[in-house]
């Protein structure tokens, strides 16, 4: 870190959907940057990006790119992180990694700052940023867990295509135009780029995000399950997920059922736990049709919660509707929050 | 009924989304019709509709329209049914009503033929067709309930706009074009025509279907809860629903968690219960990315089930993904199935 408390930052995957958001937020939040380096694959290298009125050239990410870097923010896919994150650490950088490469490693903290900031302290050079659908859920559940205990979570997701990158946005837009023009829709990417079958996402719903695991769950579903337990420090939490891709561009929504440990609670009790919570905004009033939606949550950094209802049969059961921008709190903003906490607490 | 076993049929709401489907299916299935009468509101009366190569004129529905009618199929909204269904019964017709007007009346059978055909026998002139989102769920859950018992259901829905009628389809299409043209989206109908606030549905998700009840649930959610108990003859079933409107035209999808009563079951056990079930098609193979989607289920009359998974914590818990065309099995086809069973069994 430079004497002036400013840091040298590298953004890896600078031309991707999340990388673009990271650059936008670093600028907007006046992150204490001495120098910034924008890195990408060989294919995207050479692109020009404006940052704080300066035109920068994106360079190909290589091991030696990380000399003299204090913080490297990775979001260029798991294989890039696996290869280059250790190289960055070797050269003295702290890595905040936005892929699934290191999330479940025991010596890698997996952090949502509002939930488990203290876990940052024990880092060994790499900190993992959780999956988008996990972040917004644990941000909303942590205050409830803290106040009343939490024993069971059953979540069904409603996920935006941008979680699969800029190409997925283009595919949704193209298919939508094809459908409205009575042309056949061409599906080449979703649900999973590397998988054999592709289904149209426009005017459809695909119950597959990421590849299938041996137990019949998708990797996205297992990420939500395993990451939530790690972040909430709750290995015994019973948790299940069904993850579904839907035809909208931005923000994930989640229909979440929970069992709390404390009995006799009312909707008002859940509301008061959520009202005081960092980074959470309660939008819940049936009388005025107030509830969060993906469109309204887009381009905002908070996690929005509404439709809180008491289960009609289980006295410890509640239902919630949780919405947040998957590229901001679900990715770029949470990554930068982690970097901010590292700088502020001098945990670099 | 005429001597030749042919019946005189009236379709009320003949120009609506469901009415159009009813006419199409009556023709396609060669329903044993002697005479057909197409009825509508005053506003839509006079429209011309072709049925079996004959051009028919839609007439305004009035009490005297039902003289000499054997079966009247109503889908013109609850207030029309409340007013005219008793008039039709008074004139000797049996009414199959596709609105929520009579569904919870104790002396009105609420029927999905594959599930509770026998309930038809006790009718007093009116039979209710369940809500679209209910029909497909109970059709898939009945074989599981029958084989293994069922104690708990938690459902999150993914519902098509056509459930809100032809105007909602037009609104989705218009908003989609506006969005793609970078114009502001105009929202005038969804989520609920008569409610104060309207939100865009294009590229969005609305966690409100029908009006809010005093307990914070929407009427759609309470319909799913109460109707399922009645159809499954399971007043003690613990059941909760979260209903969400999404930007596609046809077919509802449902992410369903269930607790069965029998222990030690595997996914294969659930599969075998579903495989033999009337009107249900299993589409479930992670290895070949086989699962139902709304686009693939559209214009089909069956209920499709996939993504069957065993819960990772609760040994009696399973997850399912249930998809069906909301206008066909969810409305028109179930209505006509009821009429067919009435005719076949001479229960008119």
UniProtKB/TrEMBL annotation, chains A, B:
The keyword Cytoplasm does not apply. It is an enzyme of class 1 (oxidoreductase). It holds the Pfam family Semialdhyde_dhC. GO terms for biological process: 'de novo' L-methionine biosynthetic process; diaminopimelate biosynthetic process; isoleucine biosynthetic process; lysine biosynthetic process via diaminopimelate; threonine biosynthetic process. The active site is at residues 132, 252. Residues 8-123 form the Semialdehyde dehydrogenase NAD-binding domain. Its EC number is 1.2.1.11. It comes from the Bacteria. NADP(+) binds at residues 15-18, 43-44, 162-163, 326. Gene3D superfamilies: Dihydrodipicolinate Reductase, domain 2, NAD(P)-binding Rossmann-like Domain. CDD domains: ASADH_C_bac_euk_like, VcASADH2_like_N. SMART domains: Semialdhyde_dh (SM00859). Substrate binds at residues 159, 245. Keywords: Amino-acid biosynthesis, Diaminopimelate biosynthesis, Lysine biosynthesis, Methionine biosynthesis, NADP, Oxidoreductase, Threonine biosynthesis. Phosphate binds at residue 103. GO terms for molecular function: aspartate-semialdehyde dehydrogenase activity; NAD binding; NADP binding; protein dimerization activity. Pathway: Amino-acid biosynthesis; L-methionine biosynthesis via de novo pathway; L-homoserine from L-aspartate: step 2/3; Amino-acid biosynthesis; L-lysine biosynthesis via DAP pathway; (S)-tetrahydrodipicolinate from L-aspartate: step 2/4; Amino-acid biosynthesis; L-threonine biosynthesis; L-threonine from L-aspartate: step 2/5. It catalyses: L-aspartate 4-semialdehyde + phosphate + NADP(+) = 4-phospho-L-aspartate + NADPH + H(+). Homodimer. Catalyzes the NADPH-dependent formation of L-aspartate-semialdehyde (L-ASA) by the reductive dephosphorylation of L-aspartyl-4-phosphate. Belongs to the aspartate-semialdehyde dehydrogenase family. This is Aspartate-semialdehyde dehydrogenase. It comes from Lentibacillus halodurans.
